[in-house]
Amino acid sequence: MNNVDVVCVGQALIDCITRGKEPYKKNVYRAHSISLSVGGDAINEASILRRLGKKVKLVCGLGNDMAGNLVLDAARERGLDVSLVTRREDIVTPIANLMVDDQAGRVSYNSPATMLPDYIPDPSVVKGAKVLSLASVFRAPLDTKEAIIALVKAAKAEGALVCMDTKIPTYREISIEDIAEILPFVDYMFPNENEAAYMTGKTDFMEMATYLHEMGVKNVIVKTGKEGCTVCGEKEAFHMPALDVEAIDSTGAGDNFVAGFIAALLDGEDLKNCCKKGTACAAECVQHAGAY
Fold first, then answer.
1. CA nearest neighbour of 75 among 49, 46, 41, 36
2. Alpha-carbon span 281 to 243, nearest angstrom
3. Terminus-to-terminus CA distance in the chain, angstroms?
4. 237 has which bridge partners?
């Protein structure tokens, strides 16, 4: 019997966010602000889902270090179930360096710590879940075909819906073709436009969504930033514009979209209304610095 709404599996880390920069003296720049924030797709999604009233378990790997303490403390403060979080001495909790420009665009820098050596979530983590959210597919701990396939199969055996958010690989080579066998079991996929282009080789948003849908994914939602989202689903295909807000930082906007979408899905909403909820959550996010 389902006893948790969502199990979120993926990255949890610390973001060091630098907003704006201007030359000051030789080798010295001034920034508008520099801040630390708990981030990573899994904890971002889980936190928003909890704020929206859902029961969420977080599944991630952390080190026994200062950054790991910050992440775990934040997860507990946000009301997340952390019983499935793994901490080990041989893991270094990742820290990402994010540079945000004046148009709210960002560039991220990642280190080999994001590889989370030898940490693979056990498929049993999906037990009791209504939804399995694979929050950062193609990044550790979801950057081996074996890990992804095992979790998806376990979720389907449990009767759970499978949601898949994606990333562009950084250290381990893996492609959408590597997990082709389980794509028909994926109920909702949420790549952004860059990730969808990487996976499909397409430049048109609807062509990206259609390509992935034809590979077997039931519903593909391509997140396109200030352009909104483009959807190719089982029953319909459409584009939905973003809300017109003043954006200062896009960090975590995609994760907020996915969380809002899943929350609406659990409330029984149809595809368009799920996208509307996701769009509203993303719009709220970009008006603030950081992901949460």
1. 46
2. 10
3. 31
4. 232
Supply the pLDDT for residue 66: 97
Give the C-alpha separation, 168 to 41, whole Å. 13
Q: d(Cα 19, Cα 30) in Å, to the nearest integer?
A: 10
Neighbours of 178 (CB within 10 A): 14
Phi, psi values for residue 74, rounded to 5°: -65, -40
Residue that is written with structure tokens 């966010």 in the block? 17
Of 9, 31, 34, 33, nearest to 22 by C-alpha is 31
In tens, the pLDDT along 77-122 reads 999 999 999 999 999 999 999 888 877 677 888 899 999 999 999 9
pLDDT for the residue 292: 59
Environment class of 170 (CB within 10 Å of its CB; exposed 0-12, middle 13-18, buried 19+): middle
C-alpha separations of 263 from 81, 196, 277 in Å: 17, 23, 8
Given this model, what pLDDT does residue 290 score?
60
| Residues sharing a CB contact under 8 Å with residue 32, sequence separation 6 or more, in sequence order | 19, 20, 21
Beta partners for 56?
6
Residue 152 contacts by C-beta under 8 Å, 6 or more apart in sequence? 132, 134, 162, 182, 185, 186
Residue the block writes with tokens 């000051």: 24
Question: How far, CA to CA in Å, does 178 sit from each of 114, 143, 149, 267?
Answer: 21, 10, 10, 33
**Residue among 179, 176, 183, 124 at smallest CA distance from 155:** 124
Q: Are 99 and 106 in contact (CB under 8 A)?
A: yes
pLDDT of residue 246: 82
Q: Cα(148)–Cα(144) distance, rounded to whole angstroms?
A: 7
CB 39 within 8 A of CB 14: yes
Question: Which parts of the chain register pLDDT below 70?
Answer: 1-2, 104, 249, 289-292
User: Residue 263: its pLDDT value, please?
Assistant: 98
